[in-house]
Amino acid sequence: MNSASSVLDPKTSPTFPIAARATLGDTQLRKNVRHATEVIQNKRARVVGEMPDWQQLRESGRQIRQHTMANLDYYLEEFERNCTRAGGKVHWARDGEEAKQIVTSLVKASGSSEVIKVKSMTTEEIHLNLTLEAAGIRTYETDLAELIIQLGHDQPSHIVVPALHKNRQQIREIFQREMNLPELGEKPQDLADAARKFLREKFLRVRTAVSGANFLIAETGGVCIVESEGNGRMCLTLPETLITIAGIDKVLPRYEDLEVMLQLLPRSATGERMNPYNSIWTGVHAGDGPRSFHVVLMDNARTEVLADKEGRQTLNCIRCGACQNACPVYRQTGGHAYGSVYAGPIGAILTPQLQQLHHAQTLPYASSLCGACYEVCPVKINIPEVLIHLRNKVVKQKGILNPEALAMKTAGAIFRSERRFRAAQRLGRFAETPLVRRDGNGEGWIGWLPGLLGGWTQVRDLKEMPRETFRDWWEKRGGGGK
Amino acid sequence: MAVASEVSGGVDSSTARTEVLRRIRAANGGAADGERAARQWSEIERDYRRTADLSREQILYLLEDRLHDYDAHVVRTRESEIAATVARMLTERGMRKIMIPQGLDPAWLPEGFDFAADQGASSIELDGFEGVMTASTCAIAVTGSVLLQNVPGQGRRAVSLIPDYHLCLVRVEDVVETVPEAFERLRPTAELPTTFFAGPSATADIEMTRIKGVHGPRFLDIILIE
After folding, report:
1. pLDDT tens per residue, range A31-71
2. A-chain residue closest to B202, CA distance
3. Does B183 touch chain A (CB under 8 A)?
4. Of A123, A181, A183, A341, which residue is least crowded by CB atoms under 10 Å?
5. Pairwise CA distance, residues A208 & A122, whole Å
6. How far apart are alpha carbons A470 and A466 in whole angstroms?
7. Interface of B with A in 122-151 (CB under 8 A)
């Protein structure tokens, strides 16, 4: 699939069924995705199994997030107050456009025409790099996976491991070409060493950094970022100016709440007992780290999600990606098919809501509702429940005259009446006759159905309706079946 | 609170702020109340483990085991033998030029090495050191994490980040079993720059293979002081 050259924007992306057909044909991609998701799933299962209190942690995590959303205005104001008191500067953005304008002007004001970036799905969501580049600001992604994506002119396909669709040979080719290293080996260690050399010079030179945030702490005004490689620490510590952009959903009430989140997140995300590095800082600290620190609090339709009683639990997400690794759909299609930087089950509920259902209406259907995502979610988001809720909204939005709504309405009317139900069965047996083909055992199969029903027979055969229903048989026995 | 109207990139932050808060309150059916929020927060169920189950010796063993798992080298020593142990570790690693933060106990420093106390060295100067030696705030056995804060003996964050080798000293009385115990200790100094590390820097971004050493220190030794 050639999603590589275009940005993952739900407004312009093809629908999920069309995009998925293309990715399903890419056997290399499917092999890479299967391998990566299997490895993470197994690691996660092992370290989650070590925790006798995992379910209690999940329940606390759920309650903390739910409580935060119910008091979001209070905690954001508290965060702002405390961050400001500690020397940080807090900015507010109603949408992605405003956030991008603010960041661009802050970078310019810092006097730098380059930025080093910590991996941030929030900046991917608003395509910040495109705006910065258009303003003449060079961006360097410093997370290894994000660097692979950036140098490969590719798009992220997973919220934690964005380049999991690439294998070592593909990464080597990208590095050979983009870093001008024709002799580069293909051992993962060689590739990591090349990234270290390539980026160290940037870390030591570039004076402005842009980051996302894992958590904002209202009580202290602090920010927490978790990572593995040390690129985060470099960006958060060495530059003179640090600009952190965070969705308004990232706030936590108190410092103590981190003790829950920092147990749930690493085990769910990468199958580690703790991330190799966590950084927590508060405003500006004299003689340690950036002298100028900005936080941009971005709404970008999160308040629309908050306003939906059933959908709002989506905001509890802490971006661990466990649902992606567990999802039988994602594991086949990979992330690009979702047409959004948020792929997999969480993307299937988050993206359409962030688009206020104007786009990405097929995503709530990109699920078999098996519930594996709900089971692994560290904050117990009932993703299947939200998927069904969104399907309902999509159907309603299309109006009462759309074929699916009409079909469901008709089915409802038939199932409500025994007389109509029997008539429909008779009609069905009659109507199917020309479509039924016999196999070697004399069993009847339908391989093609017309119109909307054709979706079912596209990938499987349907058995013909039985000659005699259970009711018919029961009645034929007479005497109430005795 | 009063916020001066600030314009960044043509965006009036105070207008945006008012609007975002209005939307949240509309979605939540009204403004949140601080006292009610505090009460509700205290009612959140916290039935997870918050205290140690293991004996002191088991906790230390668990920490060592976790750190080994991350390819860190761990040794134990007594207070009186710290300098000798440091000398042995540095010699084994072939290290001479070591950065130390302000306030590191001078009794820990053996003769025969080139220790330089941090005087606000630039990033490029720090890059010229082979290693760094610091104390620590505490360590968590269950996760194999060691915690640093900006206090004497641990210093600013860049110092323990840029050199490629980190020798970190941990007092056994600062080793806790669980994550919540560590947060209880950190609470009074929550606002200091704080770094957790669990092993040398690592990545699993290439085919989910754990590769040691990307940007942070690639080599890590821990001395546990009994």
Report:
1. 999 999 999 999 999 999 999 999 999 999 999 999 999 99
2. A229
3. yes
4. A183
5. 18
6. 9
7. 123-124, 127, 140, 142-145, 150
